[in-house]
Amino acid sequence: MSDSEATSDYEHFASIPWCARHLRGSSVVARPPSNRLLKPNGEDSLFAETLKSQTTILAMLEVYDEPAIPIERVDSIKAFLTLGSGLNGYPDVCHGGIVATILDEVIGLLIPINKQRGTLLDITYLTAYLNTTYLRPVPTCATILAQARIVKVDGRKYLAEGWIEDSEGNRLAHGEALYIRLKSAL
Predict the structure, then answer these.
(1) Staple 173 to which of 2, 86, 144, 164, CB 3.0 to 4.6 Å?
(2) Lowest pLDDT segment from 71-75, 98-102, 138-142
């Protein structure tokens, strides 16, 4: 991702008043997530290529509070996404499979952040399950807020939850996920 793309995503969300409120504060980290950058081995191609267009996910930004102590784990994250009509399942409504994909991806963003901080082992984690509850339609041609938090880390198991909200703070979908740290590389 180029610097101009990163700046563009930040400026996009900073120009939306309800999003801009979340971008303020001396400890706030706001940047495009690592999944928007295609890796040489093809990792993250879904969010870095397929779902990165003017008709799918136009812009995406991860936001979290930097812990006061550098070795502390980041336990929660927010992600802003602007969804295009190419994600429609019904007119102006995001396809349910994409809603689940967004939840899985945003919950999973906590893994690379904490790997970089050294608070999770730098080993592959995969989704074991994602239970998704659809509460209200998720609109397209709109900006949404997806949030996630770590519920528990127990050995190789990483239990977390996430939810999607509209601009008014109404919960649209909720997900509970279990990620498992692999014993060896893929």
Answers:
(1) 164
(2) 71-75
Taking alpha carbons only, the member of 19, 43, 172 closest to residue 111 is 43
CB 120 within 8 A of CB 72: no
Tell me how far apart the alpha carbons of residues 122 and 45 are, in angstroms, rounded to a whole number.
20
Run of H or E including 126: strand 125-134
- What mean pLDDT comes out for the span 95-121? 94
- C-alpha distances out from residue 151 to 26, 64, 137, 144, Å: 26, 16, 26, 22
What's the one-letter identity of residue 63?
V
Would you say the pTM of this structure is higher than 0.90? Answer: yes
Dihedral angle over CA of 13, 17, 19, 36, nearest 10: -10
Residue pointed to by tokens 């690379």: 112
3-state SS track over 39-69: CCCCCCHHHHHHCCCCCCEEEEEEEEECCCC
Q: What angle do CA 12, 85, 146 make, to 5 degrees?
A: 55
Q: How many CB atoms lie within 10 A of CB 111?
A: 18
Instruction: With a cut of 80, say whether residue 171 has pLDDT above it.
Output: yes
Q: Which residue has the tokens 């060896």?
A: 184
